[in-house]
């Protein structure tokens, strides 16, 4: 998805760095890059047993900074859709959308299969799979409906999901509830995908089928934000409206939280309002600083992440799996994976706190990708999925 926009004038005293293509919205690439870099950081600690609380997900109800990352990305997918598809020839566009969605879904399934390739127990849902489904639904909605309809659909999806989860009895269990193993979404996942769910739980999935509905609302909120950014309003005014919309979304989230708690694994409607509200404010800040005020010099490392977001996410998930296949013999005769050996050799001995060692390992992994992606950006290498 390649967003397009008219380059904004800026003071000659400020940096004139631009994205690989001047047609891209630099603030969007930057916001995407920050989000993806954060995603890689939290997904690759040195030791999963020792992570600081903000770098882990909330146990159930509630939220941490880590819980914001995935919905931010889906929000950005929505913004990108509004730019990428605005002037496309509608003939055959639906087929291209479905093809791209299939590729994204297949990449996610490949990661889940690697390296055992056991189709009998492979997890079918996943992060890339959810991105694929949200992209598919939001893109088709965008090319088939107007802005008013898209806004109504956000409301219908959020209210409808709340009604389903809060009032529909769960078959074979009883009353509606929001517990991990007995809610309606978990029952649906077991019924349709039994044996192909998240290996940690095996009987429910944080990227399950039913919770994809409010995730689509997250993507649609991004589309609405993108529509505002493309409007003829003055640039500073657009930044203000994005921020104000974020404030109203946050207010709605905390009101709804009283009876439909904020929960990332369930992707509750209050969670959508919370994360979309914060994403609106984050994008407003980036847009105002970068595209309105023209402060662009600091963006380059993050833009390098943003323009190859899917590529780095896929490879950052694949490479650790490959390293774990390489076995290193220990002095006692046992074997450990190369990833674990690198961590035990180059990080653990130099930090008194295992939490600091784990964080250092994650930061190093991100910095390595900064170097790789920075080189790709300089060479104008953008891998489109």
UniProtKB/TrEMBL annotation:
Superkingdom field: Bacteria
Heparan-alpha-glucosaminide N-acetyltransferase catalytic domain ranges (all copies): 24-161
InterPro entries named in the record: HGSNAT_cat (IPR012429)
Transmembrane parts of this sequence: 68-85, 97-115, 127-143, 150-168, 208-228, 240-260, 266-290, 302-323, 357-377
Region entry Disordered, spans: 1-21
Record keywords, A-Z: Membrane, Transmembrane, Transmembrane helix
Protein name: DUF1624 domain-containing protein
Lineage summary: Bacteria, Pseudomonadati, Bacteroidota, Cytophagia, Cytophagales
